[in-house]
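I am writing to request your help with a piece of structural work I have in hand. I set the record out below, with my sincere thanks for your time.
___
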Amino acid sequence: MRVPRDEQTKNLVIACENWREVSNAILKHKELAPVIIIAICKAVFKEFSDYLKCDSKLLATNPDELARFSNKLFMEEIRIHCPVWFNCQLGASGLSSKEEAVGGRVNSMAPSSSTLARLRNPQASAVHYSISTILFHSGIKHDDLNRLNGLGVCMSPDSIVRLQGKMNMQLEGKVDIWRSAIEENRGALKLAKEVLQKQVALPHLDVSKQHLESYEFFSTKGHESLITLLNEEVTKAGANVNATDCMQIVIKRLEGTKLPLYNRVITKYLQPFRQLRDVVVRHMPHEYSKEMSQKSDSVSRSLTT
């Protein structure tokens, strides 16, 4: 059995019953310290390897996912999947526990972890995409983006442009959905009114596609929406219901459909959507609608003091 002769090894043997002293003694030991450092490096290497194989938030590329990205949640992932590295960060930051890693502190820790993860996997770039988006909308110059990309702070200009293209496509898709909903509502409403006007003398309403195709306001989507609403009202009312009464209820439902208030802005300032202004709710009715519709009286400030 080897008998320790140097003081560092003797202190290590003596401290075996106190793990805190053992750990401190190991890191001061000239022979053990390098071995421990290698072991820590291997542990961190394995942590990041396993972490980047899971469904990490850093791998987010969808614009909606990037918009919801949170440094706090990302660092919680790091704490769970990479505990050795997380505690190394705490030590380097002068923090003693995860409870202290909040606010600006966690925001400072996130870029370092994400940058190191990106070295292992270039696709783990959610933080860098978020930074790039902020810089892009701040009007940063192309050359400055290249410099920051070289420093590992953000994505390359080409990557940013591709991301913005995806975001624009999603935005346009949402606008198209909104426009389609309005057109469907308006088409169903106009078709319902036309049906009542032209079939008022008939004993039964004929809302079949074959019969209504010749109508001025017929459209496939509008007709489908009208049939769906009409069937709902007929089901509610029962078998002995008058179809004309149900059609009038459907018209009221279509006229009372509440559309988002931001539609007012879109239909007012965007030329392609101005034709839809008549179906946008200007002011949603509420208990103070009457008072709000009255013009306010202007009073001189000097009279109120």
